[in-house]
Amino acid sequence: MKPRDQEFSNSRRKAIKTTLQVGILGASSFASFSCETGDKGHSNAIERENQKEGSLDWQLTRVRLDDQQYRSPWIEGYCSKQSVRAGEDLDIMVSTTPARPFMLEIFRTGYYQGRGARLVTTVGPIQGTAQPVPEPGDKNIHECKWESSIHIEIPTDWMSGVYLGRLTTVPQDGEPYWQSYVIFIVTDDRPADILFQCSENTWQAYNRWPNDYSIYTHPKGNQGPWADVSFDRPYGREAQYDAIVNDPLSVGAGEYLLFEFPLAYFLEQHGYDVTYCTNSDMLTPDRGLRCKSFVSVGHDEYWDIRQYRSVEKLRDEGVNILFLSGNSVCWVTPFRPSSSGQANRIISRGGPYGAENDYAKGREEDHGPFPERGPDEGMLMGVRNVEPVNGGGDWSIVQPDHWIFSGTGMREGDAIPGLVGWEYHGDPAKIDGLEVVARGTAWVGGEQPQEWVATIYPGPRDNFVFNASTIFWSQGLSHPPGHTLPWSHWSRPHGPDERVQRITHNLLQRAIGSK
């Protein structure tokens, strides 16, 4: 896109509201690999979507961060909802400092012939204004009450997926342009093989916008119940992850491009019938019960107890559960409405999961008191969170004859380098039929040994629950445009690995064929 200069209103008090009515771009000749799902004579919706033409220009090119490296006040924004369905409304709030016009391009992320995203609409130029940074509220919350800049009615032909809105200032008087993202998920209710849950609660917990205000940065301590965070604010740069990845070119997109996009890209590349949701969509089990499998991805640390009960219900009703994630289901994270009454817009650290296990009681003693304690996450995931939980290591197998390793050629003790990190699980639960399929050492601080463990156990209806026990699992699946490999504690994954890909195919093929 090449922004163009135009005449604009001089009003600085109200942002222009624009309702988008857009169609889908034309299809290309791309033919994707078809998984063995459903009627082999017909492609599924994801295969058809990825036959459409991808964009060559969807990433951020010019990003400017403030001196503290937390935000991009030159242009930034947020969305009124974490997820939205076709036909529903979404508002996008944008601030430009100084006031200047800007463009918005919205892309659906996926495979798209290896390009990684498809342009679905462009709007603008729109006159931007400098919107106020809120004063800290109770528990240091920063809840923006910005005026809407763009109003969207989600078109009925927008497929479920993760959507990035690229904001670009329009140059004035020879000045440079600046960019950042907004992000939202289009969800749906259709039956599908795979339900991909984005870990937006964790993105927001670590978000330090505007200047070092996250769940971790309250003066009373970084692990207690002291801070609240609001989804009504931009995603700044994930400054918590300076030691993991130093990538300002994802500003505004939370943790999606780092930890989750490689899995979405892989699934859509291979034609899996996948649909998307957020943590807040899983407060009841209804969405997941329409799918054959449920996937937790990346860094999925913060769960409302209602999410836990929902996924527990999925397992008990025969849905296959895949934790392709680490440090998952660690903290109870109750949702509450925004000050304007919109549901599920504020989260806090309500207490540890772990029931009466020593590590949960220890967190209570060290960082509490907390308002609530969650159940034992190991009884759902198969393996628990451990302390300390930060480190890096190699993913080593111990059961090479297990069906998940079929076709990998792996032998006992073979390891996938650097795949364990930046956090993991390591204490198997006592569940009938549970098997440890991989285990090894994660090096805390680069030198202190800590055991991690990956498990699988049978569900009650010929289903299974798999736990890869690492945030980095997706790094072994693909390396799409716009993605940067992370590193942790002097250890790093190597990127796509055919063994990780084969294990994942084995799990997914069993999952979607078992119901």
Structure description:
This protein has 515 residues and is an alpha/beta fold. The protein folds into 2 domains: 19-30 and 46-187, Immunoglobulin-like, CATH 2.60.40.1930; 192-513, Rossmann fold, CATH 3.40.50. Helices cover 13% and strands 29% of the residues. It is built from 7 helices and 26 strands. The chain has helices spanning 45-49, 200-206, 256-269, 305-316, 358-367, 378-381, 498-513; strands at residues 19-20, 76-79, 83-85, 89-95, 101-109, 117-127, 150-153, 161-169, 179-187, 192-198, 228-230, 274-278, 291-299, 302-303, 320-326, 331-332, 335-336, 346-348, 351-352, 383-390, 392-396, 415-420, 423-428, 435-444, 448-458, 464-467. A 9-stranded mixed sheet has the order 12-10-13-15-26-25-24-21-22, with helices on both faces. The longest helix has 16 residues, at 498-513. Mean pLDDT is 89; it is low at 1-41.
